[in-house]
Amino acid sequence: MQKRSKKLKVLKELLKINFLTYFCKVNCQKYIRHSSRKQGSITLFFALTLTLILSFLFSLLEASRVETLANLAQRNLFLSLESAFGSYDVPLWQDYRMLFLDGGVGSQELDLTLLEGNIMQESWMEQKGNSFYHMALKNIEISGYTLATDYYGAAFEEQACKAIQEQLAQSVMKSLQEKLENGKKLAEDEQKTQEKWNSAKGAIKEAKEIESKEIETEEENAKEDERDKIEEGDSSESTQELPENPINFVDLWKKSPILTLVVENPTQISGKAISKQERLITRKKKVGNMDAPNQKAVEKLWFIQYLNYYFSCQNERGEGGSNNHALDYELEYCIGGKETDQKNLEKVVNELLLLRETGNLVTIMKDSKKQALALEIATAAVGFTGIPPLIQAVQIGILLAWSFVESILDVRCLLAGGTVPLVKNILEWKSDISLGQKAIEIETNKQQNEEGLSYREYLQILLLLVKEDVLVYRAMDVVEQNIRLLPKRENFHMDCLIQRVKAEGTYTSHPLFLGFVTTVTIKDGEYHFNSNSKFSY
Q1: Per-residue pLDDT tens for 222-248?
Q2: I want to staple 481 with a disulfide (CB 3.0 to 4.6 A). Which of 13, 137, 326, 413 is the partner?
Q3: pLDDT digits over 161-181, tens only?
Q4: For residue 407, how many C-alpha atoms fall within 13 Å in the half-sphere facing its CB?
């Protein structure tokens, strides 16, 4: 009974559902017949009109989308380059505040395909999924690039000047500039000083020739004997009192290894060296293919301040720079350009001696007592010729020799950490020519003078005299050799560092709406957008 009652209930429910279905179907057919009889002709016209309107709107929408895609392609290419250049050389930035991209990536050769591959990979990872403006980077080519060594290291020099300008105030630079310019003017007189020295040696040589001719001339024998007697009688006492002519031993000093005279302990001189063939100025360098950028005028003085801040020298390290040093005398290398520390120091010392000799000559020419003593020594040496110009030339030579003796003491003071003015006053004179060759055997004092210049400041004067492009290349040598001392950086090359690139990229995107877009290239059912962009540090 229960089963039958359940079946009856099910049949009743089915009948209700069938009835409702039938009722809805009948009413719907009536409504459709009524509606079709009332709006049939209008629906067809409206359908055609609506089709045209929608086609036009979708075409506009797709055209707008394509225009946006083209702009996005340009922007995405720039952002991809910016992202790639974010992988700058970290040690180069940390130690020297230089931003460059290592195009060698641990190799000696520049490989732009690695850069292109990195950009493609990063772009692919960023563009997964679908969106209204979805596009993909299909191809990229680095068509132009500038390296750190291009145009005589213009990019390197510009970044160096920018880095130091952020650290030094303009007021500090102005006060220092005046000192360095005065030093440069003094250095420009070195040639005149050398000419005077050569004239003095020439005068002595000429006097010896005259003396030999007089001895060989039989007609002058009597006069020669008389003159010898007169000279012996007149000057026998005075020659005992007069000091030794310093021209002779100073000339020997200038031809001998000079470091033994100015360095108290030559065994402490650095023995570090770099390969002569690895220097940028001599080796074959890789070259970029982009034109020189329109750069602002770079002041050489700012670049020298950069070197002074980041590079080490004989008696101290720079405030910045690397903890690893292929050469200990880095500023000296920028001046001398030799492959060893010892040769560079010797080159710098020779130039400092000549510079100090010129400055000391200015001082000694103000001292009448020293000039009178020099005249006496000159007269005793070549006075027998009776030629005033010879005597005067030798007198100047003696004053120059005395100035050189003083210069040895000055350079010793500088290397010990003291200061020396460009031009001393008479009271600051230290050497005594009456001691002869023992005049330099005095204790070196680390003298500090408020108006004096330190060893580093004298080096800056010498750096001003180096040709600018040579100076930049030598500075890059120092940086390159120091970076190579880091782990896994032995193949680091400055001419593999990228500063600027020009790239051409191709982006693709699928059509999204029905449209008649003719402003872009369509291949294989995809839009192709060609973009060009530049990026530089």
Answers
A1: 555 555 544 444 433 444 478 889 998
A2: 326
A3: 999 998 887 767 777 888 888
A4: 26
3 state SS of 506 = strand
Q: Are 504 and 140 in contact (CB under 8 A)?
A: yes
**Closest C-alpha among 209, 81, 202 to residue 505:** 81
Distances (CA, A) of 511 to 27, 341, 516: 44, 67, 11
Single-letter amino acid, residue 288: G
Q: What distance in Å separates the CA atoms of residue 404 and residue 247, rounded to the nearest whole number?
A: 10
Beta bridge partners, 147, equal: 498
pTM of this prediction?
Answer: 0.81
What 3-state DSSP class applies to 432? Answer: coil
Tens digits of per-residue pLDDT, 46-65?
778 888 888 888 878 888 88
CB atoms within 10 A of CB 130: 8
pLDDT of residue 118: 86
**CB-CB contact of 321 with 310 (8 Å):** yes
Tokens coding 355: 């510079």
Q: How far is Cα 513 from Cα 43, in angstroms, rounded to an integer?
A: 25
